[in-house]
Fold this sequence. Notes:
Pfam families: SU10_adaptor. 29% of the residues lie in helices and 21% in strands.
Amino acid sequence: NKEISATTEPTTTDCIQWLNETTLWILGICAERKSELGRTTGTITTIDETAAYNDFASDMYAPYGFGWIEKTSSRSEIKLTTEEATLDYNPNLEAEPDQFYVNGSNEVVFLQTPNAAYTVKIPYWQIPTALTAVGNTVPFYGIFDNLYIESIVLRAQNRNEYDLAFELKWQTFLKTRAERVIEIRKGMNVRVGV
């Protein structure tokens, strides 16, 4: 047990930076493994003749792969595609969209261009608010707390030996441990060895 402050080694700032870095790595692993952890569902209300929307541009890490248009008593699936799919669509035609992609500005772009106001729901992994102080809440509802602790301890113990070999070991450690938690939550058989 060691108390950390602005004057200790490592400093509070170092630890908060490591927590933020760990958070982004865990979020990436959650997205890669298609976990519900770190994922939310956003809503876009389309406007006639407008294809691109920046509603999630500042906080979307990655879309889940599909969405849906909400209707009175049903839902129409809308699938994630790539920007190359625009070649298959008439740029002057408007209709109910059936695909979307995320462009380089992190905007959601619908194909076809919407011809009316549609309520579109899109699941995506959300970039958490960066931690800035000791009293901030770490993301993921405590599910990865032990992983955060182990990650920070590894960083603190190896802070003077910060090299590529350590970085790769640290990333492998995070990936292995985060995947175990994700698989357990999905109900898959996981073996924990020592």
